[in-house]
Write a structure and sequence with these properties.
With about 220 residues, the chain is an all-alpha fold. It is built from nine helices and no strands. α1 (about 5-20) packs across α2 and α1 (about 5-20) packs across α6 (about 110-115). The longest helix has 28 residues, at about 30-55. It starts with a helix and ends in a 12-residue tail after the last helix.
Amino acid sequence: MNPHNLHFTLLRPPILHILRAAGFQSTRPAVLDALTDLAARYMLLLAHTTAMQCAAKNSPVPTLQDIRLAMTEVGLFRPQMNVCEEDWLGEEDTRGLDAFLEWATGDGNREMRRIAGLVGPSGKDAIEAVAAAAETPPEDFLATLKKKHSKTGEESRYQATVLGKQADERAIKIEGGPSESIQTWKARQQAQPQHQTAAQTLEEPGEPDTEMNEG
């Protein structure tokens, strides 16, 4: 499975949960694939726009301001004035941001937030209680699904995969050779051409002097 198919497959369950939270009971595979493709393209556009904002400031790490400008540029905030209009009027327009926050934290998307793990077991919204969620963060559907398919309930099954933690780096020992590790073998290979060049320089005889006898 190539990376594109893997990421597309991992995005399908969230889209299904969003449809379920919106009240849909079933859908056709073609419709699901189309919605998944639209969501992937939109997130890719948002990520690319955020990266362009970082590149304009020569910063490799995006800030909250970079993400907000990217969300404004891709049309996520409506109605919203652009940066030039805000500078011209001398005031900050937050209508689009306020509307987005109201949509994201409103009752209409409460079921979607519950499936995403933003609502704790007691029913309290984690967005309204960030401190409590930080102490005991609720599990999202992916963590629950991983536990369901793991008999031991440990993360070792998914270690060194896209769904788990990265594996600890360990030295690989080479058996049956002069080098005990890949690092030692690499150093020997890099030093070998230099020794060969120096040896060839010493072995090559100099050109004999030629005397021209006139007679």
